[in-house]
Every structure is written in C-alpha cells, then in structure tokens.
Design brief:
The complex is a heterodimer of chains A (about 900) and B (about 525).
Chain A (H helix, E strand, L loop, with lengths): L3 E8 L7 E8 L2 E7 L20 H5 L9 E2 L14 E2 L2 H18 L10 E5 L12 H8 L16 H11 L4 E3 L6 E5 L3 H4 L1 H14 L2 E5 L5 H4 L3 E3 L6 H15 L2 H4 L2 H7 L5 E2 L6 E2 L7 E4 L4 E4 L13 E8 L5 E11 H9 L4 H8 L3 H14 L5 E4 L2 E4 L3 E5 L1 H4 L4 H14 L9 E3 L45 H4 L9 H4 L4 H7 L13 E5 L3 H4 L3 H10 L3 E4 L12 E3 L9 E9 L3 E11 L12 H11 L3 H10 L7 E2 L2 E2 L10 H17 L7 H7 L1 E5 L8 H6 L10 H16 L6 H4 L12 H5 L1 H4 L9 E6 L13 H7 L8 E4 H6 L7 E5 L4 E9 L6 E5 L38 E8 L8
Parallel strand pairs in A: 6-21, 8-9, 8-19, 9-10, 21-22, 22-23, 29-33, 30-32
Antiparallel strand pairs in A: 1-2, 2-3, 4-5, 4-23, 7-20, 11-16, 12-15, 13-14, 15-16, 17-18, 24-25, 25-28, 26-27, 29-34, 30-33, 31-32, 31-34
Chain B lengths: L4 E6 L8 H10 L8 E10 L2 E10 L8 H4 L5 E3 L5 E3 L9 H5 L6 E2 L12 H5 L9 E2 L5 H10 L12 H5 L5 E5 L6 H8 L2 E3 L10 E4 L13 H4 L14 H25 L5 H25 L17 H21 L3 H23 L12 H23 L9 H22 L8 H32 L5 H27 L29
The chains are: A alpha+beta (about 900), B alpha+beta (about 525).
Chain lengths: ~900, ~525
C-alpha cells in the first residue's frame, strides 16, 4: 500500500524568503511540492513559494549528484585538469578534513602574516546560514576564519546601499513601504524578479491599487514591463538623473512650498552650520554642532531651544571645527552656512539640461518625474497605524544593484535618501524604509540598534581611522577594517568588505601591502565563485592555487573542480533546521508576525549524504572542540540561545549530541522564548505543524518614531563623518606608503560630487592597453527569478519554464542595432571585452537601448552537469575585476564594455 | 444550477514568473516539455516606445470548444460544468483536436521522456504512461474540483481545491471560480473590470477572461508586419499534421474525385462499365495509399477502430464511414458490376471528398484552414483532379477509355473555377485572419500554381476540346494537362497543410495600463 504524507518545510534559496511549503511524499519519495497554505493568512506573500521552490524535487533526485564523499587524485588543479575524483567513505573523508584541521590547529590558527589559516566562503546574502545547521557553531568553536573571499558580492549585491543605508537609517536593505506607497521612481531595481514572493505579491497589490512606478533602466526588465513608464537611461548615469530631479526640486520649484520643511529643519542636519573647512561649526565648550537661530540672531547648540533655525543664508559666527585626527580650527568669526545652504549651492549646476547631457533622458521628462514625485508626496498628511498617528509620505526611490554599486553608488544612494528627506518620507508610512540591520548591533532589532551620538545622530560602528585605532595590518585578506570604515565589524562585515581584493592581491600584491598568504584550507558551501564572481575565469584560476579545498558538493561544479575533498551534504529537502520567521527583512518581507519555521527531511535519502549538523558535530568531536562547539550552540549559534529568561534547554557541553536532540533543544528554546513559556514545543511538534508565529506590530516597520523618541536626526544631507574618516584614512594609508587607494579616498566627500561615471568603464580599456573604441557596447545583466540564488542551474525543469521568458536563450540585443551588425534572431554571437570572451545566441528585442546588450543570470558553466550544455553567455566572463573599477566601499558594478560579432556555426533552433 | 468554471487573469498583476507553470507541472505530473499552463513574454512596439506584457495561456475551457466536435473518438468531452476533459484511454493521438484549438493548448508527447535522460525514482512515482501518444492539456485540475464537490469546499476560495496555477500564483493574477454564480470572485471581477476573451471573434466563448486596467495600445493589426513575423502573437507552424496528412488530402482528393468523375462519365455514356469498375479500383488504390499515410500519422494505431465513435459531430468519423462504404462497394462492383453499386461508390466517394473539405475547415486553430470556402476548394480541386486523372487515363489507355470531349470541357470549367477559388482565398487571406508567415507561403506558390495548375491545363484542355479527338497526339496534350492539374492540386494542398499551417497565435487586443496613480489624488500637482 502506498503511504502518503505532506511534510512542511521552508524555502530560503534566495534572500527574499523564507517562504513556506509542503512536500508531498509517497513511499519515502518526495514527489511534488506546493505552497503551505496554512500560512496564507500570516505570511506577507499569501503563504506562497515561487517557481524556484518547485525545482527542489528535481534537485533532490538529480542523478548527477555527488553520490558519496570523493577525494581528488590529480594533484594538478585547474580548469584543464581532470580532478580524478574517486569515492571514499565518510569516515575517510572526515579523517582527511579533521586531520588537516588538526595539523593547522597545531601550528596555530593564524599564520605568520596574522591571517587565518582557515578560510571559508558561503552562498550569498546569509541564505547559506539557513542550510548550514550547526556548522556556524563549529566555526565559532574553531576561532578566526577568513570569510572574506568573495563569490560575487560587491557587484551582485546592493553593496553601497548596505553600507550607507545602515549609516543613514538602519537600512541594510532599503525598501519602499509598498502597501502604502503611491509613486516610485525605480532606477533599475528588478524587484519583480528579485523581490521574491512577497515582493511580487505586494507590488501587484500596489499596482492594482494605483501605485505608479517609473522604471529607469537601459533594458526593459520584468519589473520595467509591469511599470507605468520606462525611461531607457544610459548605463551608470542614474546619479545624474537623480541630481537633475534634486535640482528641479531645490532650484526650479519653490522648495519651501513643496518640501517638508519641518522635517528638513528638525529631523535632518540641514540647519547645522558648516565652517570654512567643511566641518560642522561647533560650540567651543560642548563641541555640539551649532544652528543659527534667526529669532535671536545667534548660533546655538543643535539641541538648545531654537526659535527659528536658519536653513539658508550665510552668517558670521564663532566656534570650532573638528577636522581629521584631532585637528581643531578655532573661529572667532567665521563665515558659515547651514548644511542646507551648502546643499543648495552644491546642487546648483545639476540642471535637468545638464543631466540630459549625461544620462540621455530628456530634461522635460526629468522635470515631470520630479514634479510627479512632489505631487504624490502628500507633505503634511498623516495616517493612523495601529492607533498611532504617523506622517504619511507615499513616495519612494528604488535603486538596482548596478546602479547603487561601485562608482556612482555613493551619489545615487545619497540622492535617493535625500529625496526622501526633502519630503519627509524617510522611515514613515508610504515612504522609504529599511528592513534589517547587519552591521549595527543588536542584529535582531533595528530599533534597539538606534543609539545616540553626541552630534544628535544615530551612532554608527565605523572602523577606526584614527592613528591609534586604525588597523594597519589587515586581520583578514580583504582588509575591510583597514580600507572601509563604513563596513563596520559585525559577523557580516567580512562578506561586505571589498571581497574581491583577496583574489586580486593573490595574483599581484599592490605596493606596500602586507604579503598575502594563501589559506591552508578553504571551505566552500552553496557557492560557486568560479562562475558567479565578476571576472569569474580569473577567480577560478586563483581557486586552483589554493593548497587544500574542502567543498560541500551537490554536483560537480566549476569551483569544486579544484577541490581536494567533496562532501555531499544533505540538501534542502533532506536536512533538519529551524529558522526565524517574520519581522522585517530583505526588500519586501514586512511581516505582522514573527516566529520560527522548520526545514526537515522529506523523503528517504538516495545518496550517501549527511546533515550539516552531524558533520559539524563530528568534526568538533574529532578535533576535541566539543565543549566549545556545544557552548556555541548554547549561546545561539544555531539561531536561538538555549538559555534565557525562565528557561534553560542548554546542551551538555561534554557530549556529542544527535541531530534530533540538538534541534529539539533549539525548538524548545525558540518556542519558549516566542510564547513566554506558554507553549513549549519540541522538534516533533514543528515537524508536524511547520511553523509557529506570534503577532508583530506594524509600527516596528517605521524607524522615525524611535528617532523622535530619542531626539535624534537623520544624518542627511551633510556627511561630516564620512569626510573626516576619508581624510584620516588618507593620512593612515599615505603614512605607510599606500597610494593605490587614492581614487577611492576622493569619494569621501561631505556632499558627493558628480563624475562622468561611464567614462570609468569606457576608459578602463586604456589601462590594459586596448582602445576603448574597440568595445562600443555596454553589457549589463538582469535577474532571472527562475535561476537567481537557487543553485538550480542544473535543474532541467527550471530551465524549461525559464525559457518562456525572454533572454534565457542568449544575449538580448536591440533589434535595430543587431540589424546593423547583420545579426538575426538566434544567430551565434561572440561578446568580447578586455577581460574575456563569452558566446551565445542573439535574442532580438525592442526593449533595450541600442548601445546595450544584456545577459540574464550567470551561466557560462563548463563542468556543472546539464548547465554546461546550455550554451548561454555570461557577463561574469567579460566583466573586469580591478582596483580602478572599485569604489571606496569596495564594490564594483556589474557591467562591462564589449564588442559583439557574429559567431561561427548554425542558428539556435527555435 | 450547475457551475461554469472559469478563470479571470489580471494582466496588470502577472509578472511572468512561471510559478504557475511549475506548480501545474507538479500537480499534474506533466512530462518534459509539456506545459498545460504557461506564461508568454510578449513585446509590442519599437524602441523606445515598448510594451512588455506577460500573458497566461492554456486551455480556455471554451463554452463552444472547437476541439470537442472534431474528436473522432469522443476522448475529448465537455462536462456539464464546462470543463473540457480528456480520456487518455480512447484518444488516438490523431492531433485533430490540437489543430482545432485556436489557443495552442494541446500537446501530444510521442515518446516517453525524462528530465535527466534517465528515469529518476521520483519520476517513476509520477509517471503517466497513459499520456504517451495522446492529446493532453489543462483540465482545470479536474481532480481538485471533484474533490471539492466531495468535501463541500469551494474552488477558487479554498486553496487546496483550487487549480494549482491559481492557488500557487504569487501575484494573485489567476482567479478561479464559478461564472454561473453571480457573487463568485470571478463574476465580480468581470463585472467590475474591463476584460476581454481571447479570439472572441471565433465564437468559442472561452472561459478565461483577461482583465486589463484601461485601454492601451491596439492589437496586432496596428503593428508593423515585420515585428509581427516573430513572437507568440503570430502563431507557430503546426507540425502534428505533416506530409502524411497532406498525402491523405492529396491522394484522397485524387481518388475520390476520380471515382465521382468516372461515374459521371459513365452516366453520360462516355465510359464503358468495365472501365468504370477499373477506374473505381484505381481510385480505391490511390485513396488507400493516402489513408495508409494518415494511419501512419496516428500515434495510438491499435486504437484506430475507435474513430467510428463520433459520427454525430466529427467529420473525421464521417470520412471513415464514407471509406467504410466506398471500399467494399468498389470491391463488390468489381465482382458484381451493377448500376446500384456504381452509384454507391460514387456517392461514398463524393461523401469522402466533402468530408475532407469539412475536416480541414474544422481545423479552427489554423487560420489558413478554417476559411468558409475550404470545402468548396477541396471539392472543386478533387473533381478537377478526377478530371485530370480521367484525361491522363484517356491519354494512356485510349482503347479502354476512348476520348470524350466532356473531359476537357469539364476540365476547363473546373480549372477556371479552381483558379477563381484560389484567387479569392488568397485575396481574402488577410481579412480572414491568416497571418503574415502563412500568407507569405501562399504567395510563394501563387505563380507556379496558376501556371502549372491552372493555365497549362486550361490551354491544353482547350486545344483538346477544340480538336475534339481529331488527332491521336492530342491525347498527349490531354495527359500533360491532366498531370499538370494533379501537380497543381498537390502543390496547394501540401502548402496549405504543411507550410501555411501556422497556428492562430495568441492575441492581446488590450494592453494593461499599469499604475495609473489616479488613486493617489495628486491634488498638489500643478505644473509650474
């Protein structure tokens, strides 16, 4: 007789989750999958899962999976060398790995350069953590690990936004308040493809409600398709477009009439006086920044009683300026101006006509977008949320990855946030919100992370740039603490540093930089940098240089091709874990609930794989780290502290615990914590019920009231701290003879100036001895919802359904431009940049600029089964990774200058 | 009142994510490449004025489904609640329903296939061997609807009994419900929102309605034909009815037309009875070859006999009935030649020929086939081909088939008639909705068809008629004229059936207007 059951689990294949699902299991085989409709009233995306989740069944039963642990027999590593993997037992595999780890431990976990001998790279955006089981506890037990080798972040994430967003409004990710927003200027954010189930759900509701979105991007994306208007902007000129809008508002409209003047005055640093050296004019005694009171005609500390704060004009005032490195200028009578006046002066040249020259958007269109934005801003209106009256400002600006990363990222992020500030739309209903903190602490609450600093802003954990505090010798190879003050120093910072630098420096060390050693062991999990990084072929070469690589391996792939040991871990539908649900996170996951969900084995295993928790426990045991490991779990390394107010479910630290026991303890602690002890559930309850929730106030979505409560202002528009850190960092680096970061240091400006950013990529050809004229096209990329994050490129069903969407068959080229090149639909094409060559087939469309081509997703696989036969091109093969394409936050941008020509061979079959 | 299940698809919501496509594949265990539900990515306009729309398609469960009456076995049925269903066990895989469907909703997977090239343990569990070689399509998750009935749940409201595509949709773009219930979600949606039915003009009354926010840019007729030549709106070349089907229409026309003409010649006293029965035998042989080819086209050959089950509506069944009379009658007439049998043969041949015309015409999914004149064209061509074969026979066997002026005379009339019908068919093609690719194919053969198939026979038949059998060499001209007419007939039938047979394509008569912003009441918006 057939036995049937439905097993609840979560899908967190992309950062836009988690979403909840049920797996239908017949006789121990996971046969089908569907949304967990039990959650349709609580999950903000109606309890649905997206297309990617449906790939998990095929993922599980893929015959190309690594069937058991393997070891390399060919000592030569590289794309061209067959690794000669041969099967070994788990015992042998764990002996090999533990043996190597022991050897490293015996030598000391840091090497002679002070770098961790152990390095690891995990899949993006913290998604891996929700599949890693208790492996983080093992890492914690181990000690220092270099987690700074990137797999594509810096171009593939919202990098600049992560850093500036956390600084300005505790917004690791920035999001419109979609359920209330009425007008969105969207510069290239492909939210309909990358915002996950909740993004699609909420945006669709908003569209039907009448929200208008103007999509500004070179290619008409899925998101552009469902927007009211498409503005085909020239790549990398979004800052000019936004500056043109700012000019329109500040200089062509009467800003006193159309902007939220009380917000600008009381909730931003606009009235702070700026001294002649560009730093705030401060009170000599209290060191507090000063504001000019027009009522009393004198400068007063910002928190004094001020009758009429001046926003414009110039004044003569006394005070001090605190410059870099304790430099103080004392002014008896200096000419000073409010930051807002500085802003007005700064924005003066950026007329819509000027912007048109840069971004190729007609000046009149820029004006109309600016005017529509103002018209929709509802300045002065309020809304009641859960009985509390809050300002209502239903306008927002969204930024895409290529827009906010790399050069120009500071400008666009600043302009976007400033646009919110001008109409009082920051962190209020309808406006621009943050969703989570990753750099500030505590990690579980944006609100708790709000703490005052003396200037009346939220404090921010900048990496030190003072003489005493600066970390001159990097502690990990990407040197985020040394080079990027904004990267802070949280567990996430390593991944958010300039994570491509280790790959660059491993090839060629820049001047006066500490020697970069290779990690003695590198662990990679749910990531494939040899294909996913920018300039991926180059990264593949560096990976091949690593002496010992341990890869958790689903199938053979381009990165584990260089591995020494392959460990097939139990994948999504085979392993056990609990994950926190709810609150606010990623772009659109704004919940009115919080709680926990389970992921559990659905069917019987068909390959000799092991749960990550079991692997972690086993390694800890073999290395004699059990106590530290269990202690880490007890502290919360598995997602939940096992002890807390009124409960103690902690594990006996001396024993090796089984998978079920560990998660049973986590389940009890989590449910106890969630219900204040009312409802304590073990893991079996979660296995049956899937998830547990309690209400979460919508008021938590908005940070503005918390700032008001603490009497704080947003640190906008004037960036005194950034200016100071930049000056200090320049001093530090120059002191040790480092000049190769000078371009990046120029970016530390109090009010960001505009540069013709496209030139940086156009002229990069010269740097490598080529003529920019050889590469007349922009190559950009766009998110494929079907593929993104899922590690599902080897899943044929996903490929099949993705083909229904344009661009999954090749490179998208403007039809007219293609005609000029003699290219017809399906013709083979060769796309070449200074970095490399990628090949594919022409897909002709009208929805793309004639000077731009687009490659969806990241393909160009050369060993991953199935995927390698797709013959799809990849931007990652032609994008360059270099210092000159790296901005001060350590990010680049996902684009390249390329040439296109007809390739050899037949047309792609229809 | 019985339910009338249907869907309302909100074009304003759909983002083309294919979650419905995948969810459908899961729930219905469809094989590689088979998508009962899918979402198209459609682009209209030219840079920079471009619209991109995602269009959910699949079986529309038409109130007047063109696929149901054509099915010769009754495998495709319509339930009282409107569901158009498939019985895999009685389907032949003839593909008739697929060419009759104007929504490209039907698929025939001829081979068993697996996603990874080899069967996985999971695929073993969800295999449906009964679906190989038969037509398949969306059934609105029939099992869920029946389950709902049994459990007293409401499809479209209770998600577990709602069709998988609708329940899974992450944009709430696919709504399912009962159109007969005026208070159902779908009834309210169409009452309150402007909407259209796809290919409404075909009279199929599809039960999927598309909601759009406001009238946008107009449909296909306004677009430039070059852009129209590619993409889902312009249709795809059908491949289910290939040269094998064309052979049946060609040789079937030859044979049946020949039998009818032979009988008429006999009636006029121009053909001896013995020759008539030989001609009948030859006609049967020619038709037999054609039928053999079409038999090869059938995927489930062993179920061939089930073809007799739908005489009440399917012209394919009726064609088989004509065959069932024709062949025994020809055989009997050879053995016991007599006037009644002569007549039965001629009538069944005429019935066969007419059935062929109606068969093609009922291919509603193919604009080049479904024209009103299609039966006339096929009948006129069949008769012309019959005359041509008679002319050929007179040229080859003057002893058995002595010259009669009736033949070139009839040939002249039929050649002119055929030329005129073709002329009208081509001329009205665009107005009849025949797309640009198909029109191009038709235009391509125009000169050759008129020259070889019409002008040459007219010239040679005219000479033969005027000469009235005066010289033996005139028989040669008659033969060449006949052969040319056959070539012409074969040329257009092969072209129309295999090369101009582009499917209807999808339609998007109204584009959504996304996010009007009207609700935001921009009272403060004054252009300074």
């Amino acid at each position: 007789m057939t036995t049937r059951k439905k097993v609840p689990a979560y899908c967190y294949q992309c950062v836009a989750g988690p979403d909840l699902m049920k797996i239908e299991v017949e006789d121990g085989v996971a046969v089908r999958l569907e949304s967990n409709y039990d959650a349709c009233g609580t999950h903000p995306g109606g309890g649905r899962v997206c297309v990617k989740a449906y790939g998990l069944i095929q993922k599980t039963y893929n015959p190309d999976r690594v069937q058991q642990p393997m070891k390399r027999t060919n000592p030569k590593k590289g794309r061209e060398h067959d690794p000669g993997f041969v099967p070994i037992t788990w015992d042998e595999a764990l002996d090999m790995v533990a043996g190597k780890l022991k050897e490293i431990r015996d030598k000391g976990i840091l090497d002679e350069q002070g770098y961790p001998r152990l390095a690891s790279t995990f899949g993006g955006g913290g998604t891996a953590t929700q599949y890693l089981g208790t492996f983080p506890a093992f890492m914690s037990a181990w000690g220092a690990i270099d987690q700074g080798f990137g797999s594509g972040q810096g171009v593939k994430c919202y990098h600049s936004e992560h850093l500036y967003g956390e600084l300005w409004h505790r917004a690791f990710i920035v999001s419109p308040d979609t359920p209330y927003c009425n007008y969105v200027i969207n510069c290239g954010n492909n939210v309909e493809a990358s915002g996950g189930v909740v993004g699609v759900w909420r945006e669709a509701d908003a569209r039907v409600r009448g929200m208008k979105r103007v999509q500004v991007e070179p290619h008409l994306s899925v998101t552009g398709a469902v927007s009211a208007e498409w503005i085909p902007i020239k790549p990398k000129t979004d800052a000019a477009f936004l500056y043109g809008i700012l000019h329109r508002i500040l200089h062509e409209r009467d800003w006193r009439e159309v902007c939220d003047v009380p917000f600008i005055t009381n909730d931003s640093n606009s009235p702070y006086l700026v001294g002649p050296n560009g730093y705030f004019l401060r009170d000599r005694k209290t060191k507090k920044p000063l504001i000019w009171d027009l009522g009393d005609n004198e400068a007063k500390p910002f928190d004094a009683k001020i009758k009429e704060p001046a926003l414009t004009g110039t004044f003569e005032a006394a005070g001090i300026e605190e410059g870099p490195d304790d430099q103080v200028w004392t002014h008896k009578k200096a000419t000073v101006r409010p930051a807002f006046q500085a802003l007005l002066d700064h924005m003066k040249p950026f007329t819509p006509e000027w912007a048109e020259g840069e971004c190729e958007v007609p000046a009149e269109r820029i004006r109309s977008v600016a005017d529509e934005y103002l018209a929709h801003a509802c300045v002065g209106e309020t809304i009641e949320i859960e009985g509390v009256t809050l300002p209502f400002r239903p306008v927002a600006v969204m930024l895409g990855k290529g827009v906010n990363n790399g050069w120009g990222g500071y400008q666009t992020c600043w302009a976007r946030t400033l646009l919110a500030v001008l109409v009082g739309a920051l962190e209020v209903p309808g406006g621009t919100l943050g969703t989570a903190v990753r750099l500030n602490r505590p990690a579980d609450s944006r609100h708790k992370s709000v703490a005052p600093m003396r200037d009346g802003f939220m404090d921010y954990p900048f990496n030190e740039t003072t003489k005493q505090g600066w970390q001159s010798k990097p502690h990990i190879r990407n040197a985020y603490r040394t080079l990027v003050p904004l990267a802070a120093n949280s567990p996430w910072s390593a991944a958010l540093g300039p994570a491509h630098l280790p790959w660059l420096f491993q090839k060629k060390l820049p001047n006066n930089w500490p020697k970069q050693t290779k990690p003695e062991m590198w662990i990679c999990y749910r990531t494939n940098p040899a294909i996913s990084s920018w300039d991926a072929p180059e990264v593949a070469k560096r990976v091949a240089e690593f002496p010992f690589t341990v890869a958790f391996a689903y199938t053979h792939d381009e990165t584990n091709h260089m591995a020494d040991v392959l460990l097939p871990e139990a994948t999504d539908l085979e392993s056990l874990q609990l994950m926190r649900l709810g609150t606010t996170k990623y772009t659109e996951q704004f919940w009115k609930h919080e709680g926990w969900a389970i992921r559990q084995p659905a069917g019987d295993k068909t390959v000799d794989c092991r749960d990550m928790t079991d692997i972690a426990t086993e390694l800890a045991d073999r290395l004699g780290l059990l106590e530290e490991y269990n202690a880490a779990i007890n502290r919360g390394a598995a997602g939940m502290r096992l002890t807390g107010e009124g409960f103690d479910y902690s594990l006996d630290v001396t024993k090796a615990h089984g998978l079920e026991d560990i998660w049973d303890a986590v389940a009890k602690a989590a449910s106890h914590d969630l219900s204040d002890g009312e409802e304590v559930h073990g893991i079996d309850w979660f296995k049956e019920h899937g998830f547990m929730l309690k209400p979460y106030s919508q008021l938590e979505w908005y940070l503005y009231p918390t700032l008001k409560k603490q009497g704080l202002r947003f640190e906008m528009p004037y960036q005194e701290r950034i200016l100071r850190h930049g000056s200090q960092l320049a001093e530090r680096l120059h002191e040790v003879g480092i000049e190769w970061w000078d371009k990046q240091l120029e970016e530390y400006e109090a009010l960001p100036s505009y540069k013709p950013f496209p030139e940086i990529w156009i002229n990069y050809a010269k740097e490598v001895g080529r003529d920019p004229a050889e590469f007349p096209f922009w190559a950009v990329t766009s998110r494929s919802m079907q593929y993104a994050w899922g590690a599902n490129v080897g899943i044929p069903m996903i490929n099949e359904v993705a083909q229904n969407i344009s661009g999954h068959k090749g490179v998208i080229i403007n039809r007219t431009a293609a005609g000029k090149l003699g290219l017809a639909e399906g013709d083979p094409v060769v796309i070449e940049s200074v970095a490399g060559v990628t090949k594919g087939y022409a897909v002709l469309r009208e929805g793309i600029r004639p000077d731009t081509v687009l490659m969806i997703g990241q393909f160009d696989h050369w060993v991953t089964p199935f995927a390698k036969d797709l013959n799809l091109p990849s931007l990652n093969t032609v994008s360059s990774m270099s210092l000159s394409l790296t901005d001060s936050t350590g990010s680049g941008a996902d684009l390249a200058r390329v040439s296109i020509r007809k390739g050899e061979g037949p047309r792609r079959a229809a | 009142m019985t339910e009338r299940w249907g869907m309302v698809i909100d074009l304003n919501r759909c983002v083309g994510c294919q979650t419905c496509t995948a969810a459908c594949k899961h729930h219905n265990d469809t094989a590689p490449g088979v998508q009962w539900r899918r979402v198209l990515d459609i682009e209209r306009g030219t840079f920079p004025d471009v619209q991109r729309v995602f269009l959910v398609v699949g079986c529309q469960h038409c109130a007047e489904p063109p696929c149901v009456p054509v099915c010769p076995t009754g495998a495709t049925k319509q339930r009282a609640d409107g569901l158009v269903t498939m019985d895999y066990d009685t389907c032949l895989g003839c593909g008739y329903c697929a060419v009759a469907c104007p929504y490209q909703a039907r698929t025939i997977a001829h081979e068993k296939e697996w996603y990874y090239g080899q069967e996985t343990v999971q695929e073993k569990h969800v295999a449906h061997d009964d679906r190989v070689g038969v037509a398949q399509k969306c059934n609105f998750c029939e099992d869920k609807l029946d389950d709902a009935k049994a459990r007293g749940l409401t499809p479209g409201v209770d998600l577990e009994v709602t069709p998988a595509c609708s329940a899974s949709c992450i944009a709430q773009a696919i709504h399912f419900g009962d159109f007969n219930d005026s208070e159902s979600n779908v009834s309210q949606l169409i009452r309150n929102n402007a909407n259209f039915q796809m290919h409404e003009e075909l009279g199929t009354d599809p039960q999927i309605r598309y909601v759009y926010e406001a009238a946008g840019i107009a449909g296909r007729d306004d677009e430039d034909p070059e852009g129209e030549a590619e993409g889902p709106l312009s249709g795809e070349l059908q491949t289910l009815w290939d040269y094998r089907a064309a052979m049946n229409f060609t040789l079937g026309g030859f044979g049946s037309g020949f039998a009818v003409i032979a009988y008429l010649m006999h009636l006029l006293g121009a053909l001896p009875e013995t020759t008539l029965t030989y001609f009948y035998a030859a006609a049967a042989a020619i038709m037999g070859v054609g039928l053999f080819f079409v038999f090869l086209e059938i995927a489930r050959k062993l179920r061939f006999a089930l073809v007799i089950l739908r005489p009440q509506s399917s012209w394919m069944t009726r064609e088989v009935y004509a065959v069932a009379v024709f062949f025994p009658a020809v055989l009997a007439d050879l053995i016991w030649p007599q006037g009644a049998l002569h007549l039965v043969v001629a009538l069944s041949a005429a019935g066969f020929l007419y059935s062929q015309g109606r068969i093609l015409q009922a291919g509603t999914g193919i604009p080049a086939w479904r024209v009103p004149a299609m039966p006339q064209m096929l009948v006129a061509t069949g008769l012309f081909e019959g005359v041509a074969l008679a002319a050929l026979a007179m040229a080859l066997f003057p002893a058995d088939a002595p010259f009669t002026a009736w033949v070139p005379a009839a040939g002249l009339v039929l050649a002119v008639l055929n030329a005129a019908l073709w002329w009208r068919y081509r001329g009205a093609a665009r107005a009849r909705g025949i797309g640009p690719q198909a029109r191009r194919e038709l235009a391509r053969i125009g000169p050759a068809l008129h020259l070889v198939g019409h002008a040459l026979p007219i010239g040679l038949f005219l000479v033969a008629f005027i000469a009235d059998g005066a010289a033996p060499w005139l028989g040669l001209g008659l033969g060449i004229g006949g052969a040319a007419a056959l070539v012409g007939g074969a040329l257009w039938k092969f072209t129309v059936i295999t090369r101009a047979s582009y499917s209807q394509g999808f339609a998007l008569p109204r584009m959504p207007q996304r996010g009007s912003g009207a609700r935001a009441a921009p009272v403060r918006f004054e252009a300074p």
